[in-house]
UniProtKB/TrEMBL annotation:
The lineage of its organism: Bacteria, Pseudomonadati, Pseudomonadota, Alphaproteobacteria, Hyphomicrobiales. It holds the Pfam family PD40. InterPro entries: 6-blade_b-propeller_TolB-like, WD40. Gene3D superfamilies: TolB, C-terminal domain. PANTHER family: PROTEIN TOLB, PROTEIN TOLB HOMOLOG. This is TolB family protein. Belongs to the TolB family.
Length: 274
């Protein structure tokens, strides 16, 4: 499998390649200063400076099984990772952006990080605490977790709007996977898409105008890689989505927040057979 990290420009609808590699690379984040991307590769985390693109490994201490659910704090000072080195099941940790020893946040596993509140105080993640995966939040320093969603067969991909008033996520009910949003206290749950596509990983844009997401073909189960998918853009208030790009991807393409700070570009990964 070959991985290509790329940037999509909204205004021109053009794609620029940043890096290509024969390794599996996933889920690019964009740093708040707009200078670099962060992505996972072979269980480790890497910084990619856009002025001179290359993989520069970030020191993550003992964490050597980092999956594609990682991110950067709003102030750019802290990284959050989801890693299974200690227990064999994904747990959430934080560490300094420049690298260091991870500090565990979640007390139970599995847990997969996906969103950071705009004020930097709260993490949103998906976790299995019974028979199903639901959306949870907890303070950045750890502590009691709050269950946001209930009654879904499966949930994933929670991400905050830039004003912090909503958490978007993908939720499955009766075999249909659509985009939803809810207040951080779990109230006012609203269904935002309703079509045959299998919709995953919604990411509200920094300017609050759009929501980027990944759309699988009808009938796809879960969120596999190596599929023909579409990147779509939905008005933040709901409505008809616009297809931006078709590609070979899926898992790893845009699992985590990937918008540039200006809201005019986003980073993604697409794949091709090796």
């Amino acid at each position: 499998m070959k991985s290509e990290i790329a940037i999509f420009e909204l205004a021109s609808e053009t794609v620029t390649t940043v890096l290509k590699t024969a390794d599996l690379v996933e889920a690019p984040n964009w740093t708040p200063d707009g200078a670099a991307l962060v992505a996972n590769r072979n269980g480790r985390l890497y910084r990619i400076d856009l002025a001179d693109p290359d993989f520069v490994e970030i020191d993550t201490g003992f964490a050597r099984n980092i999956n594609n659910d990682h991110g950067i704090s709003p102030d750019g000072a802290t990284l959050v990772i989801s890693d299974s080195t200690e227990s064999g099941s994904s747990e959430i940790y934080t560490l300094p952006f420049g690298g260091g020893t991870p500090t565990r946040v979640t007390e139970q596993a599995p847990a997969y990080w996906h969103g950071w509140s705009p004020d930097g105080r709260t993490l949103a993640y998906v976790a299995k605490r019974g028979d199903t995966f639901q959306i949870y939040t907890c303070p950045i320093g750890g502590g009691a977790e709050f269950q946001v969603t209930r009654g879904f067969d499966h949930c994933d991909g929670p991400d905050y709007t830039p004003d912090g008033k909503w958490i978007w996520f993908n939720g499955e009910k009766s075999g249909a996977v659509d985009l939803w949003r809810a207040r951080p206290d779990g109230s006012d749950v609203q269904k935002m898409t309703d079509d045959e596509r299998v919709s995953w990983f919604p990411h509200p844009s920094p300017d609050g105008r759009h929501v980027l997401y990944l759309a699988y073909e009808p009938g796809v189960t879960g969120h596999p890689r190596d599929k023909d998918v579409e990147l779509r853009l939905l008005p933040a208030a709901g409505g008809e989505p616009r297809v931006l790009l078709g590609l070979f991807g899926g898992q790893g393409t845009i699992n985590v927040p990937c918008w540039a700070p200006d809201g005019q570009r986003f980073a993604f990964v697409r794949y091709s057979p090796g």
